[in-house]
Amino acid sequence: MNRKEQIQTLKEKIFYHNKRYYDNDDPEITDFEYDQLMSSLRQLEQEYPDLLTKDSPTQTVGGAAKRTAGVLVRHDVPMLSLQDVFARADVVQFVEAIQAEFTNPEFVVEHKIDGLSLALRYEAGQLKVAVTRGDGIVQGEDVTENAKVIKDVKKKLKEAVPYLEIRGEVYMSKQAFAEVNEAQELLGKKLFANPRNCAAGTLRQLDSKITKERNLSLFIFNVQAAKGIEFKTHTQAYDFLKKQGIKVIDDYRICKTVEEVWAAIEQIGENRGDLPYDIDGAVVKLNDLAQRDQLGTTSKVPKWAIAYKYPPEEKDTKLLDIELSVGRTGRITPTAIFEPVRLCGTSVERATLHNQDFINELDIRIGDTIRVYKSGEIIPKIRTVIKEKRPLGTEPFIIQPICPICGAPAVREENTADMKCTGVNCPAQLERHIVNFVSRDAMDIKGFGIAYVKELIAQGYINTVADIYRLKDHKAELIEKGIIGKEKNTNKLLEIIEQSKSNEPQRLMTGLGIANVGKAAGRELMRHFKDITILAKADIEAIKEVRDIGEVSAQAIFDYFSNTENQLVLEALAAAGVNMQSHDDGGDDRLAGQTFVITGTLPTLSRDEAAKLIYLHGGRVSGSVSKKTDFVLAGESAGSKLIKAQDLGITILQEADLLKMVE
Fold it and tell me: Which residues form the active site (predicted)?
């Protein structure tokens, strides 16, 4: 491969990973691996300047601005990235170059927060606009409504400064991230890879309620522009912001020599494992703002600042055991237990082994010497096995097809590497089953939060979904113990539980937690069978006659209703008065075979009401636009789904069009 091909290959890889990181919030490689790709490209372009092009990722900033959270907004001040460096020599070169330019310059060394850049614009002390980085040069996304629900975003300054634009990093604390992923797992949804991805996806949500629930945080790290007030130094600007109640970067240090700068970088590195949030390096920036203006910027980075990236720390240790645990989705996860080692400032002794395929690929065995590192300086992972140190008599580790919690059979899911427990009443999965049962898509028992579910299970009040309808029998105890709250709150929840008994049976079908049976499948099953007790007695062939129910789903449904424990749960639900029968709802099949996608805010109908209307007349509702979509029902602020539909030439409907189709 010649140098031109080598550069082109690197550019294509980086463009691909840029899209995964900036646009999809779903990176495939670690920050360190990405930095190495960029470093290799930068070095080749320096050696062969005639091969450097304007569209090279070394000459551009960030990703594309997306029409998801709102309209696109032009940047008043470019939101540039920083020049990454990886060695002490690079830091020395940067500091000495500035010292040669100015007399006794001051430097500020501070944490480089691993999050998503955000600019806040204030007019007369009032927050007017919040903008993401977008392409970094021309435009970003307006996320003002979401920014307003972040607790660290000040909607009003103490002083009515004519104009102030500040830039910060939206991030998610380690605790908040753990809570979000716990909720995702309970709901059977995909887990976020890391706090940065979660923060980025959350800030771009169309629903600010979700943004608020996920508990984002914000550090401000720069004043971008100001009118009516002047600052001489970066730290003077920080002092002003702190007086306004604005949270700036923690624990920054003012340094005057190379030795002081490097010592500050080392100290941040030593303590980074103890921080309640993630950092991906240390930033060194010139303190004097006039000197910054003199140095200026390149097309991509300021000349007055650099970001030092810490190398991933690796250590060898001995594997003591492989522990099996069962998650709330039933997935069996193997975890390596090893002799404790200290990495990035913290002691670690556990790392996930993911699944049997991962174990086989590593050929990891109990007793092996393993090399452990921290991915992104956060999550402990195993790099490799030092096989030359393997003791005699070790054996390959095999995950047995039995649940380690309840003893039920465990099976490998089709087209995945995951082993899952098949025990429908496995204690490890009970929380998820209950959360699914009470969720909006299922029985819609509002106010039945995760905290209540956990406590009621822990105290033995709930062992199956049917026990929810027996909680009224323990009303006095629940009030006395305060599990759901005081008398008023307890009465309210018990009343909502009672009301849920009259729900349509498709909600109950969704709530039972049968594999592959969600809202759409539950609705089709009830349109066909009308009664859950009749469905429970149907054979596989009869179930397969239902629209959209294939072999795998039919088998899962048949197996569920053939299970004795599930039959007892169903009997208990019926005895409690939970509705099992569909009633004539005036529906028809005029929309049969048609797939709709609903986006934006409709004039009079909620999205759920519009979906129900479509289902009532035999249509289908999908969450994403594709070539198989027949219609997109679009309301106000329709966003990216509308754009994609227009690109694909899909028919766009207004609410009035839908009502006319079904009138």
Answer: 112
- CATH for 609: 3.40.50.10190
Number of domains making up the chain: 5
32 has binding-site annotation: yes
The three-state (H, E, C) secondary structure of 365-402, written as one string: CCCCEEEEEEECCCEEEEEEECHHHCCCCCCCCCCCCE
Angle between helices 564-575 and 551-562 (to 10 degrees): 70
Range(s) of the domain holding residue 89: 72-308
Distance CA 407, CA 421 (A): 9
Q: So what's the pLDDT on residue 556?
A: 87
pLDDT at 60 over 80: no
Residue whose pair of structure tokens reads 């047995």 in the numeric block: 400
CB 372 within 8 A of CB 393: no
The CATH number covering residue 31 comes to 1.10.287.610
Res 565 pLDDT > 60: yes
Tell me whether residue 198 is annotated as binding: no
Q: Which amino acid is at 407?
A: G
In a domain, 589, yes or no: no
Residue 34 assigned to a binding site: yes
Tokens at 267, concatenated: 């100290």
Say if 24 falls within a structural domain. yes
**Mean pLDDT score, 220-232:** 96
Q: Which of 112, 154, 420, 641 is catalytic?
A: 112
Q: CATH number for the domain including 481?
A: 1.10.150.20
The answer to the question of residue 546 being in a domain is yes
Residue 412: CATH number of its domain: 2.40.50.140
From CA 333, how far away is CA 356, in angstroms rounded? Answer: 9
Annotated active-site residue 112? The verdict is: yes
Q: What are 503's two structure tokens?
A: 């729900």
Residues 96, 12 within the same domain:
no
**Phi-psi sector, 269: left (phi>0), alpha (psi -120 to 50), beta:** alpha
State residue 499's pLDDT score: 96
Q: Specify whether 354 is located in the same domain as 475.
A: no
Tens-place pLDDT, residues 277-291? 988 899 999 999 999
Is a pLDDT exceeding 80 seen at residue 98?
Answer: yes
Q: Do both 156 and 290 map to the same domain?
A: yes
Judgement on whether residues 528 and 638 belong to the same structural domain of the protein: no
3-state secondary structure of 643: helix
pLDDT-derived band at 65 (thresholds 50, 70, 90) equals very low
Cα–Cα dist 19/14, whole Å: 9
In a domain, residue 171? The reply is yes
Both tokens of 529, joined, read 């069978």
Asked if 122 and 265 sit in the same domain, the reply is: yes
pLDDT of residue 188: 66
pTM over 0.90: no
* 117 annotated ligand binder: no
Query: Mind listing the pLDDT tens digit for each residue in 589-635?
Result: 788 888 999 998 888 888 878 888 888 888 888 878 888 899 999 98
pLDDT score at 487? 92
Say whether both 474 and 533 belong to one domain: yes
**Is 35 marked within a binding site?**
yes
Q: Among 342, 343, 394, which Cα is nearest to 364's?
A: 394
